[in-house]
Each structure stands twice: as C-alpha cells, then as structure tokens.
UniProtKB/TrEMBL annotation:
Keyword Transmembrane helix: yes
Domain of life of the source: Bacteria
Name the record gives this protein: DUF1449 family protein
Keywords, alphabetical: Membrane, Transmembrane, Transmembrane helix
Residue ranges of the TM segments: 6-29, 95-121, 136-155
Length: 241
C-alpha cells in the first residue's frame, strides 16, 4: 500500500492524483450537500451547421453564433443525420467534444471518467516500468491521454440514453411552463439561446427558442410557453405578449 501511495505522489503521477482527488471531493460535495458548483462550467461555441463524417448523434439545432454552456447541453443527444443536414463545418475542438461524449452527457460526468482512466493508465505504466520518478514516466503520462479518451467514450456511451430523459435538475416540462426569466442574447428564427429561471429559489438554465421565430431582443423578460416535442428545448415569448 505504501508503494502504491509513493507511486501516486511521484513527480509523474502527482498532478493527476491531485486532479482525481479534487474530482472525488467535487462529487462528494455535490452528492451530500446538493451544491451546484457552477465554477466547473465551461463555455463552447457549438455550430451544428456541418457536413462531418464522425460517429456522433445530434438531436437539436444550434446557431453558430450562440455560446452554450456545456452543462446546458448536457442532455442534448447528438445525431449524425441531423448534423449532416446543416451547412458549414464544425471545428476540430467541437467534433472532439461531441465524439468523446463531452457533449451529450454532463461535462463533469464524462470528464471524471476521462481523468480516472488517464490516471489509472499512467499509474499502471509507470509502476510496471518503474519510471514514476524519472523523465521516461512522462511517456506514459502524455501517451495515456488517447487511450483514456477512447475508454471514456466506450464506458460513457451507455449513459447517453439515461441522461437524455432528464434535465440538469430533473424538472419536468410542466414545472417549467409559465416560468419567467431575462433573455441573455437576441434570438430569432431557429436560433437557440439559454434562459436562466428559478424553481424554488434554485437557478437552472434551459435551452430556448422564440415562438414562431419572432425576434426577441436581449434583456427582454420572457416566459416559457411550450416545449419542443421529444427535446429538452422550450419555446418562449415576451412577457405579456
């Protein structure tokens, strides 16, 4: 056990050991306290106007100019047939996130699996070769990234259907209808944005589009009036419209 501990805190493995420990602490805090640690969110620009030959699934429409939190799209199922109908191309980073399930599942869920596999591969490689305390060990540190990504994709894929059926907070569509919030960016046509609303003082973000494609300026107070069938996407209109 002491030898395993020494390997874990060696110069090669220490960064991943610390990161893995922080992730364990994150899940303990969120599980035991229910605290939503929003500072783990990251923003990506998702442009699903593409023609890409990748093993991805997309079940909604995004606008190329819309910034969407990874957490906001954590329940978005990406289908290839919807992707290739669009015009334009995804950049490499966007395809990377989609392909390895960082979009399509809660980001921290997928990221935790990735770090676990990366840490395990690096630990095993440096332990077998006794390279955890020398420069050769960094071959396993950096070389473990690619296999860890593919293991993450394989092991997280079965969870996609599960998370598709739930919102970030598990709220039902009925609970969201009539809720009000302030729109953060101007939308019109098929453009999608995010709207922050509160349920029992708990702020949540949902994906929204305007009713009948009307233009709704940023900073407009809006209300949710409907839900797009079979999607975690809601229809909004200006309050008292």
């Amino acid at each position: 056990m002491k030898e395993l501990f020494d390997i874990a805190i060696s110069i090669v493995n220490l960064p991943l050991t610390i990161l893995f420990g922080l992730l364990i602490l994150y899940w303990l805090l969120t599980t035991l306290t229910g605290i939503d640690l929003d500072f783990f969110d990251a923003d990506i620009d998702v442009d699903i106007d593409v023609d890409v030959d990748a093993d991805v699934d997309i079940d909604t429409e995004f606008d190329a100019r819309t910034n969407i939190d990874i957490q906001d799209v954590s329940n978005t199922e990406v289908k290839k047939e919807d992707v290739i109908r669009r015009r334009g191309k995804l950049n490499f980073f966007q395809v990377f996130l989609i392909y390895f399930n960082f979009v399509g599942l809660p980001f921290m869920f997928t990221f935790s699996f990735f770090v676990l596999f990366w840490w395990a591969i690096t630990m095993a490689g440096t332990s077998i070769t006794h390279s955890y305390d020398n420069d050769f060990g960094f071959v396993f540190f950096f070389g473990g990234i690619i296999p860890a990504l593919f293991l993450t994709k394989i092991f997280t894929a079965p969870f996609k259907r599960f998370f598709t059926n739930f919102n970030n907070k598990g709220e039902s569509a009925l609970e969201l209808l009539g809720r009000q919030g302030i729109l953060q960016s101007t939308i019109s046509g098929e453009k999608i944005s995010t709207l922050e609303i509160k349920i029992q003082s708990d702020p949540i973000k949902v994906m929204v589009k305007s009713k009948d494609g009307m233009e709704i300026p940023a900073n407009t107070t809006v209300e949710i009036v409907n839900q797009v069938k079979n999607k975690q996407l809601y229809i909004i209109q200006p309050l008292n419209y």
